[in-house]
Design goal:
By secondary structure, this protein is α/β, with parallel strands linked by helices. Helix content is 16%, strand content 30%. The protein contains six helices and 26 strands. The strands form six sheets. It has a ten-stranded mixed beta sheet, sandwiched between helices. Strands 4-11-10-6-7-9 form a six-stranded mixed beta sheet. A three-stranded antiparallel beta sheet has the order 3-5-8, with no helix packed on it. Helix 4 links the parallel strand 17 and strand 18. The chain is globular and about 75 Å long. It starts with 7 loop residues before the first strand and ends with a helix. The N terminus is likely disordered.
Length: 458
């Protein structure tokens, strides 16, 4: 659970900024009667209990316990999974069983020496890290679960001691009944995820960042599990879309908006937008220039146009200028580019500023205070000051310490170093493992609550 004891800076009667302190340990779900039987090495060997037993959604917590150990027995637990490219992600933790030989991660703290320590019931999930450096967990096929492997080893040795028990668990991206519908309508390309049932649902368009291009469905699929009709929208380097656009036309996103507004299973009269990084400034531009947008969530976005100029009708917004003299080389030619963008609030940077004051939508800015790609915390704070000065009350900020640029749904591994979309070199994205992972866990239900509030109240 997150204890909100930080300062709550009130900008207006409705607009506010919450600066969250570092999290206290999370709570695990209550045990259900169903438990997973481990593949024990013998009938007398220890076993792993899981709840849910065999399958859970990727963004759901998983309760883990071990039974049949010796009194106060030291053990090492290891979680492993492979993404769709076969790359391995692992986390491990050291524990000591109770006097009764039971080990429940909800009540027993991890000892120093593993991926984490302290009372962290879901630590084996949020602490997963790639064995290959600088690797992002690839998930393209939402209809195929990820297989999680859990192992218990004797002692605290490195390498681990004798294998005592193991279990497998499926981490799914689609709840039963959620429909995945490829969208090839006019110019737009993407995938629509529809919750079970025939009634209309609140609609969201999910737009990813610029690095790599293509179609990213993981957020949209998980949101559909929570009752949203969600369109994962591609905008370059996908099928017949431009490979290397020299400009981006807002008319394409307007077409996607109209597609959602006209869909019989999307509840009107407006839709929500969820944008990450470059996708966030596109969402803010949509809110500024287009109608029928009710709520916008910006994940570590800029308040100015970045990377590629934006065109709409007879207007072109230039990109925010960069100063390559501010590039810092830190380790093994990895760059820190946190200072290269010019200020969007001062000339000539203000030519790139999105006129967000024109937006009628409710705005939620989610920012990481350790974001090294963008000074997203600073940008969000400054743009909300501008909105407040114009009498606007339609904004909120959630600002997370120790949190980097790549904010994903819960239990996605931290991705602290990536390829910069402008300089095309490896650069620091930021984030401290524990704080960043807890921020993802906290922000996800906040996003859902925000959309439920403003899209269902239409």
């Amino acid at each position: 659970m997150w204890w909100v004891t930080g300062s709550l800076c009130r900008a207006s009667s409705r607009g506010w900024q919450m600066r969250l302190p570092r999290p206290s340990p999370g709570r695990s779900p209550a045990w259900t009667p169903a438990t997973a039987s481990a593949c024990s090495l013998s009938s007398a060997a220890p076993s792993i209990r899981l709840s849910p037993a065999a399958r859970s959604l990727f963004d759901e917590p998983l309760a883990i316990a071990v039974q049949g150990l010796g009194p106060r027995q030291p053990v090492t637990l290891r979680a492993s999974l492979r993404d769709e490219t076969g790359e391995l992600f692992q986390a491990c933790a050291r524990y000591q069983a109770g006097h009764d030989g039971e080990l429940d991660l909800a009540h027993c703290p991890a000892l120093p020496g593993g991926s984490f320590c302290g009372l962290e019931p879901m630590g084996l999930l949020w602490a997963l890290q790639p064995q290959k450096p600088f690797w992002y967990m690839v998930k393209k096929d939402m209809q195929r679960p990820i297989l999680l492997q859990l192992e218990v080893f004797d002692g605290h040795g490195d390498p681990p001691g004798r294998l005592l028990a193991q279990a497998q668990h499926e981490r799914a991206f689609l709840r039963d009944g959620v429909r995945r519908v490829p969208v090839r309508d006019g110019r737009i390309r993407g995938t629509l995820f529809l919750p079970p049932g025939e009634d209309p649902f609140p609609g969201i368009i999910d737009i990813h960042g610029y690095t790599g291009g293509g179609l990213f469905e993981h957020r949209a699929s998980l949101l559909a599990n929570h009752g949203f009709a969600t369109l994962a929208l591609a905008y370059y380097r996908y099928e017949d879309l431009p490979q290397e656009p020299t400009e981006i036309h807002l008319e394409y996103f307007e077409e996607a908006l109209n597609y959602m507004l006209q869909h019989p299973q999307v509840k009107g009269p407006g839709v929500g937008l969820l944008g990450y990084s470059k996708g966030a400034d596109l969402c803010l531009a949509m809110a500024a220039f287009l109608k029928n947008i009710t709520a916008v969530v910006s994940l570590n976005g800029s308040m100015a146009i970045t990377i590629v100029p934006l065109c709409y009708k007879d207007k072109t917004i230039p990109v925010l200028a960069i100063d390559e003299q501010r590039v810092k080389v830190i380790d093994s030619n990895i760059l820190d580019l946190s200072d290269i963008l010019m200020s969007p609030f001062q000339a000539p940077g203000n030519q790139s500023l999105i006129p967000i004051e024109k937006a009628e939508a409710q705005l939620l800015f989610i920012v990481g205070q350790d974001d090294h790609f963008l000074k997203s915390d600073y940008y969000a704070t400054e743009v909300c000051k501008l909105l407040q000065a114009q009498g606007k009350e339609n904004f909120q900020i959630l600002s997370y310490p120790g949190t980097g640029h790549c904010i994903d749904p819960p239990f996605f591994p931290l991705y602290p170093i990536g390829n910069h979309p402008i300089l095309r070199k490896r650069a620091v994205m930021g984030g401290e493992l524990g704080a960043h992972s807890k921020a993802q866990l906290h922000a996800w239900p906040q996003i859902q609550a925000f959309f439920h509030k403003y899209l269902n109240d239409n």
